[in-house]
Records
---
Amino acid sequence: MANYQNLLVAIDPNQDDQPALRRAVYIVQRNGGRIKAFLPIYDLSYEMTTLLSPEERNAMRKGVIGQRIAWIKQQAHYYLESGIDIEIKVVWHGRPYEAIIQEVITGKHDLLLKMAHQHSLLESMIFTPLDWHLLRKCPCPVWMVKDQVWPEKDSAVVAVNLSNEESYHTALNLKLVKETQDLANRIVKEPLIHLVSAYPTAPLNIAMELPDFDPNVYNQALRGQHLVAMKELRQKFYIDEQQTHVHEGLPEKVIPEICDELNTGVVVLGILGRTGLSAAFLGNTAEHVIDKLKCDLLAIKPDGFVCPISVDEE
């Protein structure tokens, strides 16, 4: 159940406005819960000050941390004064993504929110290496927030995989729709949830090598398979047929286009969190979709996901 009550907001140190904190407050005001504003900082110049003693370097780090805490309090003063429960924490850590994920684990946070920067020309979101580390490795759902006005019609798009190529797709599809419904019913009066799936066209090399192969018949059969699977999925959650979309094409093209047409507030998708050779050889379909989105993103891991980050004992 997506009853997010313990939210962690990764503060952007390079700008005064914090859309991720604003989105967290939006959720808490409607669903309850508490927020922790978290910022890992590090400056190698403080570690390289050889003329200073370890005590003096430690005092300098504490001074910088204190300044950042005061800065975050200033950013959040309106929310704090209105009674929103926000804890502020700044730590000294050389790897921001590790610090954030370790805080998720030790603080038992059930949702991480972070701002994704917007490209000025394409209006799509730009993801930094920090973003990708969090999307792939964070054990809890990750909400990447775009700095935009929330649409008047609160709509969410759930990207589902109906190919049946892997057994885990069915379980993940059910988890995505259920968590989206749970969250939407808690924070939106009349939620509108759309399900989107894409299916590939017949490979050209097969059509060329097999004279009797009819790509039109193949495409129609594949579309029929996806329509049947979509009907089965939507009926389990009482979703109207008009709110389901099955389109031919690549997911990274189809899903962003549907989101644009519907003026979607957030797209929810599953991300397997592959890293290393697995990611290099198999790829991460979700990540190709993410690159082209123009709205908020909620990335959810499948059940059984194992976080590769361990918690520091210090």
Note: Residues 276-283 have pLDDT under 50 and may be disordered.
---
Amino acid sequence: MDVNIHPSWKPYLQEEFSQPYFTELASFVKDAYATSTCYPPAKQIFSAFEHCTFNEVKVVIIGQDPYHGPGQANGLCFSVNDGIPHPPSLINIFKEIETDVNTPYPKSGNLERWAKQGVLLLNATLTVKAHTAGSHQKKGWETFTDAVIQSISKEKENVVFLLWGGFAKKKASLIDKTKHHILTSGHPSPLSANRGYWFGNKHFSKTNSLLEQVGFVPIVW
């Protein structure tokens, strides 16, 4: 498994790559990709760390695991490749942005444009077997991505963490609340959104307000 990450991450994550759990994880991922269809494509597994440098992280959005349908996952949580129909959660994210910050619903579901502005789009598990949600959970990815969250919490200040849904909310314990901001709400999936736990959370305008208060450039959602 090639670990393609921007050099800015290496001082904070290099130690993880030499841990026994990561060696086992790399071996599991290599075998999984060799014997079955997995997503995202191998070269995009670490896309979140390529498109958003450590120094530029201002916002962290935490997802669970990648989309498991053909052509969808591109290594950024909630994001899909250009030209791919938007999955239900992404549709609800864009609808909330539309009403919250008055931005028109976008054509492309590719969120690289957010990543380049300092939004780390981090799935807790970075790979998945085709058509099998959660298939690569508890193989070591969570240990790695928890270390990522803790490094950001320890080394940076005034990062806005967006925790959507029960799974993401559990990550709050890894974050130093005295120096960062945590916004929580229901998950944007239809099940949660249609029960009233997502729409109206105004997380996008709230995030920008928090960023502006400390002199950061707001995100163009």
Note: The mean pLDDT is 97.
